[in-house]
Amino acid sequence: MIRVNFTQHLLEKSAEQGRHITIDDVAKESGISRITLMRIKKDPTRGTNTDIIDKLCTYFDCSPGDLLIHEIG
């Protein structure tokens, strides 16, 4: 199963910037809808497309391998 490690990246970016970053902040800056971000946060194993992964990687300044986690079982 592939899981999007969204919440961890959100917490890390908040710590780096010294402020609480909200879903609305990410939506405004990434161009990803708030609904899509909430869906990813609520169910990180639910499928998403490569355009969303690309935008999240750009926002968090990471690679897909940093954002996606492969879980066995």
Automatic annotation (TrEMBL):
UniProt-recorded Gene Ontology molecular function terms: DNA binding
Entry-linked Gene3D superfamilies: lambda repressor-like DNA-binding domains
Membrane-spanning segments: none
Annotated HTH cro/C1-type domain residues: 19-67
PROSITE patterns found in the cross-reference section: HTH_CROC1 (PS50943)
Protein name: XRE family transcriptional regulator
